[in-house]
Q: What sequence folds into this?
């Protein structure tokens, strides 16, 4: 796939040729009875609306032009009502093989993956408890497939850290706070906390689908990430000769209880200090990410972000002291 | 241990010598400043209060005379305020080895265990789906330890079927209704339903302690029976060569969702017809057992059972047509 | 009304002349400022969109062309975006008298009404308790108007069994399960259960309006089906010389409590085994119907039905063993 | 029954002979092994504890000495720990016939019944709507049995106006406020409101038992006062030739909805202004009665009444301006 | 600004020139690709849709043509689908200064402001308690800015009394009922109740913005009207030499608790009779206003108003006796 | 007051003479009819039961011997049923003046007050924002009365940090975590967070009474600590010339919202990152304190602490790795 300009850099009047991901695609009919194609096209830098007014200009299989497909398009950038859009001349389906590296079509973490993986490996190496270190190494270092998925998955479908690499970024951010908390509350077992944070959301790698648009897998809907994580901990602990039952039980407990309440999908409440801490830091990190992103990204005029369904509130954007 | 009369058969004025389980034990002081021992003693047929007015009559270690211990007692049956009680002359701690067969000291199912196990085996043999049959056989037939525990455990600590053998009796009762429901709703996969019922509470064998008084184990409090069951299904399915992922996922789903709501400890809602059915039949069977037992056992005069905390209501005892 | 093809059997390119029910009707304006008529037209086999681009082609009273009216239309079947639609040349209002038998314009139960009524009568005849049998006969056999309404009404406005005959079909399905349950749980009074099921929703015949689109009547909104049923039971029991107060009270209780919870509109909780059973079987039958219909009817590609508001979840469509 | 002093007027050291109601009665055993009888005895002015240390002093049938029975007792008033109690010498069961007028044994309204009935009759006579007036007269004037019960019943078992005559007093108090509200909000139909208030709790005459201690009847537990009231309205409206359906429906609606929420036992929400008003004034009157009584009756030192379970709070007793 | 006809008085075919408030404004594109402007224009008498099909006819700054701006428009009244709309020929932004008196562009109370202020002043003068009278006078009479805002603000953003002057009208209506309630329940301190009603919503003057469309201010979203009112009471009581602490505490309590429940934003429950009364009368008055307005204003055919989100129900419009 | 041994150090058989706080006091009667006095006596190190079998041995005013009074007692230490108790020979009321320093009779923080105050002052001095520093200094440094109360108050009546000095200890612990969190999340305004933590519970100094037993004051019950804090912030900000409105609003918001949910008494939800953080760290610190204290102090045998009503769960006491 040749170089192409990013959506965010486009300007009205320019022409554009390149591959884009169709997040939405709909054939509509005008009041005159003619059909047209309305698209929402995206790359990692953003998205815009696009219109093909004459659908006979579609090349190849018309059925293949649908949501979650890559399209090769040619057209001109227009400004309409203050927003850019594409007025297309040509559209055709593009097979995945033609596109190559998918990552340029999705939002990604601002932190480089290699840097995050290095931080993760250092954290695992710092664990003093041999059983915990072995368990983490088995899952996050030695299991190449899981390691790759863990580095790629978003942290959620629609709540917080919703971008590739978000799961790893979120996990590392909690770990940073967790280290600090273990420094403050001396009674906490730091290695247990570290393990709990690493494990608490790793099952999202199979709960979510994130090859194209983000969604839930069948496993995600029928089983959920928490029960998947428990399965993995048990399988791995079965393999490690002599893994202590007490430790297994406490790790499983942290994972099971980390949503904090039964009605949020945790079948048990946190009943150890470590489980309680992991729950609070996870919840706090996710909510702060939503707030900070809302304040940072919202381009609107007023003092408030739009209503956040995840937080069930709007966020106040004015920072004290006010920027000059 | 020699023969001894059952508590239910005792009459006022008789003397009694034998072993009983101390469900409660407290040293109290009278207003005159003298100490006495107040006990609640039980065998499988019932329980009664007992008093030892002179604690110097305790033989051997006084510390060992406490709740959940077996005691060898000697005394006389008294009637007080319409209730029988024991006025004791002698009390001593009795080691478990002296007692032998515990089952005569706990409430037990009215159905013989061997009959129930035979019914269970027949049901497993009737499963046509080979994967399901193998999985059930591995857990309930070939695993002797689990089979024995499954035949012994109560169904709950305090809600319904609270007696030895109650778990198996409850499971078989649901299975009876499940067969009927699969006859009525033709779209249901009967083998899947049967497996779901068998598996839905089997983890209670480790969630509950029932050697003496009934309670929760650490595993029960920290992990719970549902997650334990999921672990067992996964471990067994890992061992069966070629066990289909789709089937494993649907079985795990039935087990995970069988409490019907997140706030009741199911991390996912029932999303297949089979999961929905298992949830309803389990819930119905437990609640009907409480009602029928309440109506049958309550000796009170009025038309209502005492308030049931499990049902959050009293039950109306008058049956139509009224017994003559 | 002459023969006409069913909507489900139409093919693109065919012409169509006939009567259809307007479920929706809206006059809209195009960007060119011309008005057009957009309709949703239905018969019992389905519905489709229809457009009349020149509203001068409406014959007779334009005001009468609105939702819930029958229309005589003439036009041609078109395919648009994979869906059939009608491009109309002529539209006129058709009085009810012209249409005759309404039933061909509404979704109806798959079971023939006469068969269902026969099953109902046999069930009533099988009731051994003379008081109960008399009461059921008075309402469902001798009261011709109620009998007719009971055979015609849907079971709900939007939850389950939403089609003509749905109330009777739902009632009979629960009765089937109820017979089985009474076979399983011997303590249940079968005749009481049968009466409870018959009576539990019969008030929907006045709670719902179902001559055209389905909705609630004023009586439905202000009083509700449960209180209406209680009124009918009391009126009928007043008429039957010597009807036992105890029985009346227990029947009224089953009806009042069958929604199972106060927040679902039952002013009392089920406090007899029969009331508990009727509640569970009613709830189960309604939810299973939604699931089975969702799995059967959904034409979508994926493994999941659309989100069901009645169930507050999506339903998993993959059946084990997978169809080949 | 001869004259006897009221409990409230007793003084330490006095002897007492007379009839009292046993609200509680228990045979207990002392640490010395002797049995004694502990009673809670009441007349309309109050209650006190009583002890019979030698149960051989019971005359006649010992079984008959139990809660809800009248007893003839003889003894001496003692002060113990700041509270009066009776140290009894003799106790015997007294048949109801011996006691005569029960009303001197129960708490009663401070308002004379005849005055309240006159106020009630005047209110009914003031109703201009002939249908409503006929309906109220039929129930509250012409039905002597219901009229008597309505004048005697308490308003609740344990929440507010818990004394004989409380139902009528509570009803009249709401009616007073209702008149005022109809003067303020001119759109309200005053006669409809008056009828709604009269009818809203009249079913408590059968929901509650109040011959001895206050409790629920079987009808109260299985059907409830609201559904009973609906039955009575319907039966009476059936009898009045030409009673308008619209009016019947609106009256039934006010009664059904007057608890304001489904979870409080109203199967429908108030959907007319009159229904809304009746709900608010009923709720307000009951809660204010609890508060005023709490402030008036509480003899404690502090600024707060004891925790009220009905209000789920304590009430602040300090009145502004403070009494001097 | 010259005279201009009110929206409510317009007739199809008339031409219109004048100033209107743009409640909504959107540039849209037709299927032919041409842009047009769609507006919702309002004055105090109502609102209607308006279209400018050729956006080149906008005079001056196009960016300024947006929601909450005043526009000078010229066009012709059209009827479309039974509703009037404006087909515009010219549109331009109009600065506020050109418009003068805003009040003719917003819904206003039906009661004249001067009449309401006079009623308010008389009520304050009638307060006998000197501390309370001083406090009320300081806030509502002597503080000219607050007095003006109190006379102008709506009572809510979207629930009840949503029009200019609504806050004062709502407050006076509750005061009318409060007087009546204090007449009925003699134990109530009337002056305390009057003060509580005056103060309970006065903070809405800063919680809401109501210069253009109604909304929440930053103070409203971050602090809320209740805490603002507490601040004002405290500040004013600090200024009045010798203001009694007990009275201050009871006034603050009424204000804090008047939403009646923690989940509705009251940090404490009403714990005095006066606080309880203010809560009930406030709630009742708001809900009745919604009902009466719904019944009065709804032009629809049926017996029911549209679903009210504030009441979470539809309201029954049929009044008994039915209007002839 | 002379030296006296601490309760925790007493041994069976020793005699004891000294002052103790009566946490409970009740005159009871034995079955023989003799009165005795039962006490719960406490100093800072613990509490024990005490009995005076002959109440004539009370010197001076018997009425004064009641809960919350100091008593001078003389007696002997007894062991009963494994617990120590006092068998008293003499008891008399002791006026507060005789006792001197109260602190030896209440549980106190393990951290010395002077150390905590120094830490507090250093934190205030470290605040860079001049407005925030001034506000904190005015309240916590310059207001000697508030400073003293802040150093003495417990953090709650019954949830966490329930001992003298607990409020300050809890505040400093959150501040420690808050510093760490601001190091981790760079977008947070550290000074705003510090101020929020300082202010969030300072009103407990007037919400709680803690001179004797811990309880709520009238102000606590009617107004609550949050609204009191808002009053203090506003009063102080009014006094500081030029205090910015924006800052005042954000500080008030943090305080108002720090309980996190409306149903927990916060009238607004946290809508800034700083408010969210303060809520989470406060909640976490309180809950961890309960857990750690439960694990540390519980002397029971099992693996679980007693059920904690504050946490609505039991806490697992087994620490990984297990102590050897």
A:
């Amino acid at each position: 796939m040749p170089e192409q300009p990013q959506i965010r850099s486009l300007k009205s009047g320019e022409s554009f040729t390149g591959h884009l991901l169709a997040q939405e695609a709909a054939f509509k009919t005008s009041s005159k009875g003619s059909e047209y194609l309305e698209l929402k096209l995206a790359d990692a830098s953003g998205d815009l609306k696009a219109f093909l007014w004459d659908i006979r200009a579609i090349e190849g299989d018309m059925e293949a032009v649908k949501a979650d497909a890559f399209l090769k398009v040619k057209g001109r950038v227009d400004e309409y009502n203050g927003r850019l859009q594409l007025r297309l001349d040509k559209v055709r389906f593009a097979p995945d093989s033609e596109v190559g590296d998918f990552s340029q079509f999705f939002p990604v973490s601002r932190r480089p993956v290699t840097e995050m993986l290095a931080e993760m490996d250092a954290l695992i190496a710092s664990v003093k408890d041999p059983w915990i270190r072995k368990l983490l190494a088995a899952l996050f270092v030695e299991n190449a497939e899981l390691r790759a998925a863990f580095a790629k998955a978003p942290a959620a479908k629609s709540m917080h850290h919703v971008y590739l690499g978000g799961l790893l970024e979120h996990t590392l951010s909690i770990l940073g706070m967790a280290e600090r908390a273990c420094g403050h509350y001396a009674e906490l077992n730091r290695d247990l906390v570290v393990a709990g944070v690493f494990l608490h959301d790793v099952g999202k790698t199979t709960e979510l689908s994130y090859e194209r648009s983000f969604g839930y897998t069948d496993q995600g809907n029928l089983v959920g990430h928490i029960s998947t994580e428990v399965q993995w901990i048990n399988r791995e602990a079965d393999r490690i000769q002599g893994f202590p039952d007490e430790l297994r039980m406490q790790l499983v407990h942290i994972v099971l209880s980390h949503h904090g309440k039964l009605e949020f999908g945790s079948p048990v409440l946190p009943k150890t200090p470590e489980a309680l801490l992991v729950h609070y830091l996870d919840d706090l990190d996710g909510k702060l990410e939503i707030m900070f992103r809302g304040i940072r990204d919202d381009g609107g005029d007023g003092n408030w972000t739009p209503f956040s369904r995840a937080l069930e509130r709007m966020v106040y954007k004015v920072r004290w002291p006010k920027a000059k």
